[in-house]
Amino acid sequence: MDLSQIYEGLWKQTVEAVDKGEWPKSGTLVKHCVRTEASSLAPTRFEQDGVLGLHAILCSEDQVSILKEGKNIFEDFVDSCAACMSTQRALEFKNLVFWGGAWHATVCIFSENPTLLGEDERSVWHSIDEDKVHMLRTALEEGLCTDHELEVVVTLHGFRVCADGGLIAVFVEDAAQSFTALRASAKELGTRAIGPLNSRPKKLIHVTLGRILELPSGLPDNERVELFKVVRKWATALGNGTRPADGDSTGCEMAGVLAAPLKIRDVSLCRESGWWMTEYHVYQTLRLCDPTAQEA
Known about the structure:
This protein is of the alpha+beta class. It has helices at 3-19, 27-30, 61-82, 87-95, 119-123, 130-147, 178-194, 221-239; strands at residues 33-35, 41-43, 52-57, 97-98, 104-111, 152-161, 166-172, 206-212, 243-245, 248-250, 261-264, 266-274, 279-287.
């Protein structure tokens, strides 16, 4: 699977949505959000059957430094979008941008909350109770680190403004494909422990840094036209490994960011009570094999 081709498709889908006047195509996401007293949107909470997944929670200094670069870029993008609007609508727009949730790269989702699934998927969904979680924990603890013997390192490929308003950092692998091997091992161990997984297969290696969930209500046509020009420009530039500056694209500001290695040293089995990892319980954290650990 050529991830770089998939990532190229992401920004082209965004441009297509912009050209059709449909950006952000976030209706499915907004449906599972709640409106706060401040008129912003927040992801839903799960009273039961929260999403159960294995994630690399990225909080070490070297991991955060890479992701902060991306967040700074996306904050500039949001400012550029807001500059197309009146003062009041710009404030409303910024209020609709969601920056919350723990930074993480998903390895495997073992069970989605049924409300997030389509009708066909819900018909075969089954609850993962605490007894099954215990079986899963045991399987991962006994099998993951012994099955998986490669150091897990991915490389920053770039940043993407997505058609659904997602603002993400995307990563690729070297020939060893250590993340893909980790993902396959987790899926196999999970299936053995708890049966067929209640989730869609994961293909991307990405970290969501923010989401633009809606545009301000009553956005005038002239502001919408200017906004879509900005979104198109940024999506295209970032898709080509550059970022807009002074109305054009320049690669100099991205040169020191792209191709940065992201080392994944551990993964955590988590149950989300708040969607998008806004609230979650960690059942266990597993240290992965790291051949460089003895050299440190």
